[in-house]
């Protein structure tokens, strides 16, 4: 009977790429970004130890109790959101089960995304056990950025048919632009890591008694700003070259999107520093970090892969000469 039920279930699953698979991939990306923002809300409301135990909320209760107040509700609510991510990730994985051979890329990415969620939950538990050690909290955030990266690639890969995913076509970007994209990837990673260190030196610790990393916030902010300026200039140059070389429209769009996100994130970062880190702007900056990661990954994917997202097979890799 179980074997029959499993066979019947698999017969109802997609045997080819469908809009449902793409929607689930998008839901995976959106949910990964949402949990970053809600995790930021936990820290910014000093609710990081609202549930003082893990995996239970308290020694005697799985859920938040009235004694824990609003902080307990906020922290427990963020923990509950993990189950939403699991449901979406499981649905994503199940939807590509029948495609696991022709579309191993989708299957492997789905497995990685699902495996990352419990791993991230365990790291979240370690942050509680270490009383919100800023280095552990920072690692928690960086793993979230890794999952955003995986989800972004997954979204891009779901745009392809099985035939397109196997074709060997020229890369979308000329060599100089691919080199700039590699620099953009490195600078984006550096900006995010330094941003985590700056956060660990700042006032929003997640709990009034939580330790900080004892680094000079002003100095770390200045160090963090240096690669931000380089990133802005590199992205601007990449956009200019994308139009000069008339690369595939999908690549131009991805670079313009990245430029908008970089400028917006830089403006929010400057404003929050100038205004002494108001909670609202810090939360917006956290959202911006996730969007920056996704936009950078999307641009690099589009320029480096042989299948630019959103382009037809006949238009791929057609790089024209510069316009003089």
From TrEMBL:
<keyword id="KW-0812">Transmembrane</keyword>
<feature type="transmembrane region" description="Helical">
    <location>
        <begin position="135"/>
        <end position="155"/>
    </location>
</feature>
<keyword id="KW-1133">Transmembrane helix</keyword>
<feature type="transmembrane region" description="Helical">
    <location>
        <begin position="176"/>
        <end position="198"/>
    </location>
</feature>
<comment type="pathway">
    <text>Porphyrin-containing compound metabolism.</text>
</comment>
<keyword id="KW-0408">Iron</keyword>
<dbReference type="GO" id="GO:0006784">
    <property type="term" value="P:heme A biosynthetic process"/>
</dbReference>
<keyword id="KW-0350">Heme biosynthesis</keyword>
<feature type="transmembrane region" description="Helical">
    <location>
        <begin position="20"/>
        <end position="42"/>
    </location>
</feature>
<keyword id="KW-1003">Cell membrane</keyword>
<keyword id="KW-0479">Metal-binding</keyword>
<dbReference type="GO" id="GO:0016491">
    <property type="term" value="F:oxidoreductase activity"/>
</dbReference>
<dbReference type="InterPro" id="IPR050450">
    <property type="entry name" value="COX15/CtaA_HemeA_synthase"/>
</dbReference>
<dbReference type="InterPro" id="IPR003780">
    <property type="entry name" value="COX15/CtaA_fam"/>
</dbReference>
<feature type="transmembrane region" description="Helical">
    <location>
        <begin position="223"/>
        <end position="243"/>
    </location>
</feature>
<dbReference type="GO" id="GO:0016020">
    <property type="term" value="C:membrane"/>
</dbReference>
<dbReference type="GO" id="GO:0046872">
    <property type="term" value="F:metal ion binding"/>
</dbReference>
<keyword id="KW-1015">Disulfide bond</keyword>
<keyword id="KW-0560">Oxidoreductase</keyword>
<feature type="transmembrane region" description="Helical">
    <location>
        <begin position="281"/>
        <end position="301"/>
    </location>
</feature>
<keyword id="KW-0472">Membrane</keyword>
<feature type="transmembrane region" description="Helical">
    <location>
        <begin position="80"/>
        <end position="99"/>
    </location>
</feature>
<feature type="transmembrane region" description="Helical">
    <location>
        <begin position="255"/>
        <end position="275"/>
    </location>
</feature>
<dbReference type="Pfam" id="PF02628">
    <property type="entry name" value="COX15-CtaA"/>
</dbReference>
<protein>
    <submittedName>
        <fullName>Heme A synthase</fullName>
    </submittedName>
</protein>
<feature type="transmembrane region" description="Helical">
    <location>
        <begin position="106"/>
        <end position="129"/>
    </location>
</feature>
């Amino acid at each position: 009977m179980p074997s029959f039920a499993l066979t019947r279930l698999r017969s109802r699953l997609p045997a080819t790429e469908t809009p449902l698979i793409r929607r689930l991939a998008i839901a995976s990306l959106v949910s990964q970004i949402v949990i970053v923002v809600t995790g930021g809300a936990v820290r910014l409301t000093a609710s990081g130890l609202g549930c003082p135990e893990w995996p239970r909320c308290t020694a005697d209760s799985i859920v938040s109790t009235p004694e824990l107040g609003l902080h307990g509700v906020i922290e427990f609510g963020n923990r509950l959101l993990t189950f939403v991510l699991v449901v979406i990730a499981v649905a994503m994985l199940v939807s590509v089960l029948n495609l696991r051979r022709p579309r191993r890329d989708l299957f492997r990415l789905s497995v990685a995304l699902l495996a990352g969620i419990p791993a991230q939950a365990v790291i979240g538990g370690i942050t509680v056990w270490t009383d919100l050690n800023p280095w552990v909290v920072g690692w928690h955030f960086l793993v979230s950025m890794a999952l955003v990266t995986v989800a972004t690639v997954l979204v891009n890969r779901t745009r392809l048919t099985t035939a397109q995913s196997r074709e060997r076509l020229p890369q979308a970007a000329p060599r100089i632009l691919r080199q700039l994209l590699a620099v953009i990837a490195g600078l984006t990673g550096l900006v995010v890591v330094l941003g985590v260190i700056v956060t660990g030196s700042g006032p929003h610790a997640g709990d009034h008694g939580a330790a900080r990393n004892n680094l000079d916030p002003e100095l770390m902010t200045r160090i963090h700003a240096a690669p931000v300026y380089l990133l802005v200039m590199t992205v601007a140059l990449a956009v200019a070259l994308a139009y000069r070389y008339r690369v595939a429209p999908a690549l131009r769009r991805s670079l313009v999107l990245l430029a908008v996100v970089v400028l917006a994130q830089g403006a929010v970062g400057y404003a929050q520093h100038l205004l002494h880190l108001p909670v609202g702007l810090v939360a917006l900056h956290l959202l911006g970090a996730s969007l920056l990661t996704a936009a950078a990954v999307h641009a690099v994917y589009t320029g480096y892969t042989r299948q630019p997202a959103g382009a037809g097979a006949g238009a791929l890799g057609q790089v024209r000469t510069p316009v003089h």
